[in-house]
Amino acid sequence: MEPSAASTTALDLARFQFAFTIAFHIIFPALTIGLASYLVTLEGLWLWKKIPKYRELYHFWAKIFAINFAMGVVSGIVMAYQFGTNWSFFSTFAGGVTGPLLAYEVLTAFFLEAGFLGVMLFGWNRVGPGLHFFATIMVALGTLISTFWILASNSWMQTPTGFTIADGRVVPTDWFQVVFNPSFPYRLLHMVVAAYLSTALFVGGAAAWHMLRGRSTPAIRTMFSMAMGLIVVLAPIQMIIGDLHGLNTLKYQPAKIAAIEGHWDSVPGQSVSLNLFGWPDMAAEKTLYAVAVPYLGSLILTHELYGQVPGLKQFPPDDRPNSTIVFWSFRIMVGLAILMLVLSLWALWLRWKGELFSSKNLLRFAVLMGPAGLIAVLAGWITTEVGRQPWVVYNVMRTAHGVSNHSVAALTTSLAMFVILYIIVFGAGVIYMLKIVARGPDEEGPPEDAIDNPLHRPSRPISAAENDAAVEPAETAGK
After folding, report:
1. How sure is the predictor about 464, in pLDDT bands with cuts at 50, 70 and 90?
2. Do 272 and 308 form a contact (C-beta atoms < 8 A)?
3. Are 90 and 392 in contact (CB under 8 A)?
4. What is the four-CA torsion angle of 240, 328, 7, 252, rounded to 10 degrees?
5. Does the predicted model carry a pTM greater than 0.85?
6. What is the pLDDT of residues 318-358, one digit of tens each?
7. Could you tell me the CA-to-CA distances from 208 to 170, 213, 224, 368, 374 in Å, in that order?
8. Which residues of 363-398 are buried (b: 16+ CB within 10 A; e: fewer)?
9. How many beta carbons lie within 10 A of that of residue 36, not counting itself?
10. What residue segments make up the domains of the chain, in order of their start?
11. Greatest extent of the chain over all pairs of C-alpha atoms, in Å
12. Cα–Cα distance between 102 and 80 in angstroms, integer?
C-alpha cells in the first residue's frame, strides 16, 4: 500500500527532526573524541618533559572538553528517545540488534567515561600524577569505545549481516557478523580520523586566531605546531580510507555510489566519466550542466580504466537515493578534504623554511579552516544517511515502514520546539565555549590551589570551565 500524502508529510517531518537533532549532536562527540586524545598527549608530554606550556594547554583544553562532553550527553539522550517516539516500528523490528549494541555502548563506554571524568577534570591536585594520567587515558578510551558501538549499530543498518527475520522482527544469529559487518571497519576508521582532523583544525584555527592578534606565546605556538603536524599526517590517510570506503560502498550499496556521482546510465564496454560538477535532476533522470572528466570515474571508483559502475536507471525509481542532495554533500566533504591537504602541505613547507609562525596568510587560512572538519563531518553524515534512502535497514526495511503513527500537527509542534530549544541551549553553550577559546590558555598556568579551594568545588562536568571566576573570601561572604 502506498503511503498517503499526509503520512508522507509526517514521514518527512520525522526524518527532518531526526536530522536536525543529530546534526547538533554529531558535532560535540567529534570534538570530544579528538580532544580526549589530545589531552592524553598533553598530559603525557607534561609528565615526561615538565615543560609548563603542556600543563597550561591541558587545563585550557580540558575546559573546552568539559563543555563539549556535557552538550554531547544532553543531545545524545534526545537521540535515544527519538527511536522510541518517532521510530517505534523500526525499534520494534530491529531492536533485537540495535538495542543491545546501544546498551553495550552505555555499559562499556559511558560508565567508563563517567567513572573517570571527575578525577580527570577535578583531581589534578587531589590524586597522584600517575592516577590522574590514567584517568585521562580511560576517558579517552571511553570515547573511542563509544564510537565503536555507535558505528557498529549504524554500519549494520547500512550493510546488515548476521541475522534472520522471525515473526516480523530481526533476530541476531551471529553477533560477530552483526558487529563486524562489511562496512564497519571503514566507517569506524573514517569517523575516528575525521574526529581527530576536526579537532586539529579547531585547535589550529584557535591558535592562529591568537597569533594574528599578536599573542604568540610558547603555549599558543605549540598548539599551532601540533595541530598542523597532525593534519599533515592524517589528511592523506583519510583520503586513502575514503577511497577504500568508496570501493566497499560500490560493492554493497551501488545505488548510493550512482547517486553520489550523478551517474544515470552504464554502457557495457565504455568507461565511466567523473562528474566534477552538475545538477542531478531526479525527474529528468540526468545530470544537468555536467562538467565531466572522461575515464576518471572508472579509475577512481573501480581502479580500472574501463571499470563499470551501475547507473541510477538500473534501480527502480522508488529505490533511488536523492542524487541532488548527496551529489553536493559529497563534493563539499571532498572539497574540504582537499583544502585540509593544502593547509597541511603549506604548513609543512613553511615549517621547513622556519616561517611556520610568521606567515600571516597561512594563519588566516588556518582560521578559515577552523570549522572545516566539523562541516565535513556533517556533509559526510548527510551523504551516508541520505544515500541509504529509502531504506532504514538497507534492503531489509524501508524508512516509511519504520516511522511512528504521529500526526503532522504533532510532529510540526515537536520540531518547532526542538529548533527553538536547541538554538537557545546549544547556541548558548557554543557561544560560551568560543568565548573561552578567545581568552586563550593562561600563560601563568592555573593556581596550584584553585581546585582545592573549599569555596569552589565543582561537581558538574561543565563546571570545569568555570574556574576563572573570583572566589569571595570566607570572612566577607554574606556581607
Report:
1. low
2. yes
3. yes
4. -30
5. yes
6. 999 999 999 999 999 999 999 999 999 999 999 999 889 88
7. 51, 9, 7, 10, 18
8. bebbbebbebbbbbbbbbbbbbbbbbbebbbbeebb
9. 27
10. 16-245+324-476
11. 87
12. 9
- As given in the structure block, the three cell numbers for residue 138 are 580511560
Find where cell 568555570 sits: 466
Which residue shows C-alpha cell 538495542?
Answer: 99
SS (H, E, C) 221-288: HHHHHHHHHHHHHHHHHHHHHHHHHHHHHHHHCHHHHHHHHCCCCCCCCCCCCEEEEEEEECCCCEEE
Per the structure block, which three cell numbers stand in for 75? 543531545
Q: Is 459 exposed, middle or buried (0-12, 13-18, 19+ CB in 10 A)?
A: exposed
Per-residue pLDDT reduced to its tens digit, 274-321: 889 999 999 888 989 988 888 888 888 888 888 888 889 999 999 999
List, as one string, the DSSP characters of 25-82: HHHHHHHHHHHHHHHHHHHHHHHHH--HHHHHHHHHHHHHHHHHHHHHHHHHHHHHHH
Q: Which amino acid makes up residue 124?
A: W
Per-residue CA distances from 125 to 128, 449, 462 (Å): 7, 8, 19
If you search the block for the grid coordinates 578534504, which residue do you land on?
337
Cα–Cα distance measured from residue 244 to residue 33, given in angstroms and rounded to the nearest whole number: 23
Query: How is residue 259 written as a grid cell?
Result: 547517486
d(CA 113, CA 132): 13
CB 370, CB 205: distance < 8 Å: yes
Using CA atoms of 11, 13, 19, 23 in order, give the dihedral in degrees to the nearest 10. Answer: -170
Of the chain, the end-to-end C-alpha distance in Å amounts to 73
The DSSP bridge pattern shows strands 391-393 and 397-398 to be antiparallel
Give the HSE-up count for residue 454: Cα atoms under 13 Å, Cβ half-sphere: 2
Helix axes 254-261, 372-388, angle to 10 degrees: 120
Place of cell 574501463: 306
Indicate if the alpha-carbon torsion angle 272, 274, 277, 280 is positive or negative. positive
Q: All 3 cell numbers of residue 211? A: 597569533
Question: What is the structure's pLDDT at 191?
Answer: 95
Inform me whether the pLDDT recorded for 471 exceeds 80. no
